[in-house]
Specification:
The complex is a heterodimer of chains A (325) and B (359).
Chain A: E1 31-35, E2 40-46, E3 48-58, H1 66-90, E4 97-101, E5 151-156, E6 161-162, H2 163-177, H3 183-212, E7 215-216, E8 225-228, E9 250-253, E10 260-261, H4 265-282, H5 290-298, H6 304-321
Antiparallel strand pairs in A: 1-2, 2-3, 3-5, 4-5, 6-8, 7-10, 8-9
Helix pairs in contact in A: 2-3, 3-5, 4-6
Chain B: E1 2-7, E2 12-19, E3 28-36, H1 47-69, E4 78-84, H2 88-105, E5 108-113, H3 114-126, E6 132-136, E7 141-147, E8 150-156, H4 162-172, H5 181-189, E9 202-203, E10 206-207, H6 210-222, H7 231-235, H8 250-276, E11 280-284, H9 291-303, E12 307-310, H10 313-316, H11 320-332
Parallel strand pairs in B: 1-4, 4-5, 6-11, 11-12
Antiparallel strand pairs in B: 1-2, 2-3, 6-7, 7-8, 9-10
Helix pairs in contact in B: 1-2, 3-11, 4-5, 4-6, 5-8, 6-8, 8-9
Classes of the chains: A alpha+beta (325), B alpha/beta (359).
Chain lengths: 325, 359
């Protein structure tokens, strides 16, 4: 179980695609940025070597029943693409969609090249048969006709850092500052807290903008919120106004893998609840400031008030029921 | 140091005795006995009757545990009991027993959170250091990771627990509750082939199970598979020749239910692993001894370059030894429970416990 992990081979057309390296003649492979729960994220380029792009590959999940897996993968990648297109149209800050393939199995007969996973980024002609290929030969084999091969979506590349890192950095600095009784330090800490509060309100506004556009995210965590630095000398044009520190940048929502189009209070409230819980578990020291997010959300669009009321119900539900038995 | 643990939060009554050697070597399980209150097919266990069962058995089990462990009450350092969460009346039987033994033997009490008991036992048995924990049982479904002195809940069910969902479906189909409804569903599911479409409800790291239960209960009624079995049903289990028009069998429904809800569990666990950047996963709780769930989780962990830790029914299903283990850790860290506070409660969140014994 302790062997090093090799990501599955890339699906076509990306199995040939290499990021051109301008300094040397030898091409370097695409860079695996992160392995999320459902997808592998690569950094690549689109049309010109100067335009970075994010390639999100959803390999087949060998642990899932193939029929269920194909249904979910297809449904989710399409939802993701549709939601993103809609949000871009509505002027919400999300990555734009460049291309999508929702069912890798459908465009050719599977030529089972079982070149195992040794050459993760290899340029051979292996059709990423999901991660299970070449391994234990699980139950997929019987129902191969129905099994999916995964899907991919190519999106605009978002510069910046995940808010998870921002809050982690802040919480780490808190730990240090508690020791010092220095007033200057305290003032700096207070200023930092104000900046964090402003950032939290901005998150609320961003989520409100998303909901106003008729989309719920389904997996709001601080990993899925990016802080894109605003280019200097150029205020962020549309949507949110940058309040407080202009250098903080703009909130960009990413990873719409569980998103859906909904305008129901219930779905919106659950979205907020999921975010609240993510704060509680990931950033315990920031949890007490979560009210700022709701503050930002409240003023962001007209329906926000009734969603906040619904949130109360959702909170009660989640917490109490979990304690039975 | 030696601790005795009493567990009675649901229909299992467990007594366990654990030894933590003074030289700091690996703790030893000296005794682990259990008796389960089993109801007839189609029925669940009611708090009142379950508590009566526990009261009738607890003295016998404590005596047997002491015999198994070859210790006398004098050797024991503390008496640990489940403080919660669980069903009220059954919880009280262990709490009362613990108080009685404490006064009788003159030993200190330690009230233990049931979920923390599961986690600590899982960590001890598997030797995993800092895993993402999936805790799945009849009353709880949580994805947990440790961070600054607390077991934080990253995801959980928004309505009913996964074990509850399985148990109630077993009731609909009149599947035997002996040894456990979930076990019998697992055996029946091995014969299932066709996957029926069920709702799939994942909300970030949370899940919802009540809609799935309603959907599959509805299917069972639609195809006349609910209620007591008769011999005809048993022989009809072979599906019709044309797959399209074949009616699902009981086995198909069990298979579909398992595949769907376990996929959801593995998915939220994987999301939590990706979120916290962990490579280890530990499954605890009664549903955790399901081999299909373990298999799916193993594949997921392998594909993330991680490892799966799981235990068998002795430690997965509610038991006294886990209460003794978690209680003794708390006792050594200096947090005994005074007699006045030795109450029990139905609602006791995992993240309410201050974990003094970990860094």
């Amino acid at each position: 179980m302790t062997t090093t992990y090799h990501p599955p081979p890339l699906p076509p057309p990306f199995h040939h695609t290499l990021t051109p390296n301008l300094t040397t003649t030898s091409p370097i492979p695409m860079e695996l940025i992160t392995q999320g729960a459902e997808a592998h994220l690569y950094k690549t380029t689109y049309l010109s070597p100067a335009t970075p792009a994010a390639l999100k590959i959803r390999p087949a999940k060998p642990y899932r029943h193939p029929v269920l897996d194909r249904r979910l993968t297809r449904q989710r990648v399409l939802q993701e693409a549709r939601c993103l297109v809609r949000l871009v149209r509505e002027g919400v800050s999300v990555p734009g969609v460049l291309a999508v393939d929702w069912d890798l199995n459908s465009n050719s007969n599977s030529n089972s090249n079982s070149n195992s996973n040794e050459n993760g980024n290899g340029n051979e002609n292996s059709r990423g048969e999901g991660q299970g290929e070449g391994n234990t030969g699980s139950e997929d084999n019987g129902t191969e006709a129905k099994a999916g091969n995964g899907a991919w979506i190519l999106m605009e590349w978002i510069e910046g850092i995940a808010l998870k890192e921002v809050f982690r950095g802040w919480e780490a600095s808190l730990k240090d500052n508690n020791r010092d009784e220095n007033t200057a330090e305290e003032q700096a800490a207070a200023a930092a807290e104000e900046r964090v509060k402003a950032l939290l309100r901005k998150i609320g506004v961003a989520v409100g903008g998303l909901h106003r556009a008729g989309v719920v995210h389904g997996d709001l965590t601080t990993s899925n919120l990016m802080l894109r630095p605003t280019p200097s000398g150029q205020q962020s044009g549309k949507g949110e106004k940058v309040e407080g520190d202009g250098d903080e940048g703009e909130i960009v929502l990413i990873d719409f893998g569980l998103a859906s189009q909904s305008i129901q209070d219930e779905d919106r409230a659950v979205d907020l609840y999921v975010l609240e819980r993510a704060f509680g578990s990931t950033h315990p020291r920031t949890e007490r400031l979560f009210g700022e997010v709701l503050e930002g959300y409240r003023g962001s669009y007209r329906g926000a008030g009734s969603v906040m009321k619904r949130l109360e119900d959702v909170r009660m539900r989640g917490r109490k029921r979990s304690m039975l038995g | 140091m030696i601790a005795i643990g009493l567990e009675s939060s649901a229909n299992k009554l467990g007594v366990g005795i654990i030894l933590h050697p003074d030289d700091g070597s690996t703790p030893q399980v000296l005794a682990n006995v259990r008796h389960t209150y089993v109801t007839p097919p189609g029925e669940g266990f009611l708090p009142k009757d379950t508590a009566r069962h526990h009261r009738a058995w607890v003295v016998k089990l404590v005596k047997k545990a002491l015999r198994d462990a070859r210790v006398t009450p004098r050797d024991i350092d503390c008496i640990c009991f489940t403080k919660g969460p669980g069903m009220g009346a059954p919880l009280q039987s262990a709490a009362i027993t613990a108080r009685m033994l404490s006064l009788l033997w003159g030993k200190e009490l330690v009230g233990v959170n049931h979920c923390v008991g599961h986690i600590e036992m899982g960590r001890l048995i598997t030797g995993s250091t800092n895993p993402v924990v999936l805790y799945v049982s009849g009353g709880n479904t949580q994805v947990i990771a440790y961070s600054s002195q607390r077991y934080r809940i990253f995801g959980e069910t928004l309505d009913i627990a996964v074990g509850n969902c399985l148990d109630r479906f077993a009731r609909t189909l009149h599947i035997s509750n002996d040894p456990a409804p979930g076990y019998n569903i697992e055996q029946l599911a091995k014969k299932g082939k066709t996957l029926v479409d069920l709702p799939y409800t994942v909300k970030g790291m949370d899940i919802s199970m009540s809609g799935i239960l309603a959907a599959i209960d509805g299917l069972a009624v639609q195809y006349g598979l609910n209620g007591p079995w008769n011999d005809e049903d048993e022989t009809q289990n072979t599906p019709a020749s044309d797959e399209e028009n074949a009616r699902p069998t009981r086995a198909d429904l069990c298979f579909s239910l398992q595949e769907t809800v376990y996929s959801m569990l593995v998915e939220i666990t994987e999301r939590a692993m990706a979120h916290v950047g962990s490579k280890e996963v530990l499954i605890v709780g009664g549903v955790g001894c399901n081999e299909r769930l373990q298999e799916m989780m193993g594949i997921m962990a392998r594909d993330r370059g991680g490892t799966l830790h799981a235990t068998d029914e002795r430690f997965c299903i509610d038991n006294g030894i886990m209460i003794a283990q978690a209680g003794l850790l708390a006792y050594k860290a200096g947090v005994p429970t005074p007699l006045k506070e030795s109450t029990c409660t139905q609602r006791f969140r995992t993240d309410d416990v201050f974990v003094k014994w970990r860094d």
